[in-house]
Amino acid sequence: MEIVSGIVVFLIMWWLVFLMSLPVGVKSQQESEDETVPGTPESAPEKPRIGWKVLATTVITAVLFTLYYFAVQNNWMHINALFG
Predict the structure, then answer these.
(1) What are the tens digits of pLDDT across the range 1-23?
(2) In the beta sheet, which residues pair with residue 28?
(3) In 51-84, which positions are buried (b, 16+ CB within 10 angstroms) versus exposed (e)?
(4) CA 67, CA 18: separation in Å to the nearest integer?
(5) Is 24 part of any domain?
(6) Predicted structure pTM score
(7) Is 39 a domain residue?
(8) Of 2, 10, 20, 77, which is the most exposed, with the fewest CB atoms less than 10 Å away?
(9) Which 3 state secondary structure label does DSSP give 45?
């Protein structure tokens, strides 16, 4: 696997995992017992915890990419096998 294609695959995996993790554990201000922050809608998240989600996404993606990398390097997954 070329370095550029590896980086591209990692970034695509990272964004997919990140977007899937965004709604996890989020409670809106409307559901919260605290008051709504002035200037924000009630549906805005109370504590989105983006930093933790970025860290968790990076760790999960590193594990998934490692599995993908070994599958490609050991010819367990080969693109030519799909098309003929």
Answers:
(1) 789 989 999 999 999 999 999 99
(2) 45
(3) eebeeebeebbeebbeebeeebeeeeeeeeeeee
(4) 18
(5) yes
(6) 0.80
(7) no
(8) 2
(9) strand
